[in-house]
Amino acid sequence: MPSDYLDFEEPIAALENKIQDLQSSDNNLGNDLAKEISKLNDSIIKLTEQIYKNLNIWQCVQVARHPQRPHFIDLVDKICSDFDELHGDRQYGDDRALVGGLATIGNHRLVLIGQEKGRTTDDKINRNFGMAQPEGYRKAGRLMKLAEQFSLPVVTLVDTPGAYPGIDSEERGQSEAIAKNLLLMSSLKTPILVNIIGEGGSGGALAIAVGDHISMMKYATYSVASPEACASIVWRDSDKASDAAEAMLMNAENILRLKLIDEIVDEPLGGAHRNPDQAALLLKKSIIENLDNLKSIPISSLIETRYTKLMSYGNK
């Protein structure tokens, strides 16, 4: 149960706090207490269903950014039977915001790549809040080539507000690193499965999000820029982020309608942050099913279909 409630979750918080008060009280109501708690639990389920059924896009952004939403490393621990992390881009250094290595999910041996935002303050700083620099994207490209060499599928877990926009990143070729990954993934001779698990922000997300099958968790977001950046550009006011989110149609339902993704992966009631274990199981099931499908298709057909999909973006 999350301790951090979003503003629209306050009615849920009130009921859950009431249950905690009843459980910690010294009364001896016995069955009456159990019945009252059961009624409150039923009310929480109904209220959560009602709230999450009617989320607007800005509220989806808040869920995607929830501090207790499972990150890359959390999911790796839950869906992989083993994970051997590989480091460095062999040119500059090792970017801790972008993690990758050899993994096993179900019966599939694969290369797994994704952004990690960090959990504690020190870890967030070490991970640069999930915003990769050029060496991160070059590391990802190196691992993709490794996957191709050993005929391993590539699976990516996308969760970033965007690539790091600092001057030092630009001096080291941020745009070039992203562009090279787009080129590489468009013709990589191995299956590529993309999963957007939180924020899919801008080119920082797209640099590991070109694939044969693109899945998106129900309350994740995917957009050309963060709502704050879009609001700053369009209205010169980052406080209009909620308006920008609505305008960019960045929630999973709209992204699927626009044919930019292939599948929405369901989440537990109230979002992945309320039940990370169940969220991981749902994602794992989707990954295994899609890898089974992709590995049955000849590589030449995969690449042709991948190219056709890329060329179709933007068509009505």
- Give the mean pLDDT: 91
Provide a count of the helices: 14
Order of helices and strands: HHHHEEEHHEHHEHEEHHHEHH
Report the count of strand segments. Answer: 8
Helix content: 40-55%
| Corresponding CATH architecture of the largest domain | Alpha-Beta Complex
N-C termini distance = 43 Å
**Uncertain regions: pLDDT < 50 for 5+ in a row?**
none
In total, the number of domains comes to 2
CATH superfamily of the largest domain: 2-enoyl-CoA Hydratase, Chain A, domain 1
CATH class of the largest domain: Alpha Beta
Strand portion: 15-25%
Radius of gyration: 21 Å
Describe what this molecule looks like in 3D:
By secondary structure, the protein is of the alpha/beta class. It folds into 2 domains: 7-54, no CATH class; 67-312, 2-enoyl-CoA Hydratase, Chain A, domain 1. The protein is built from 14 helices and 8 strands. Strand 5, helix 9 and strand 6 (213-217) form a beta-alpha-beta unit. The longest helix has 23 residues, at 31-53. It starts with 9 loop residues before the first helix and ends with a helix.
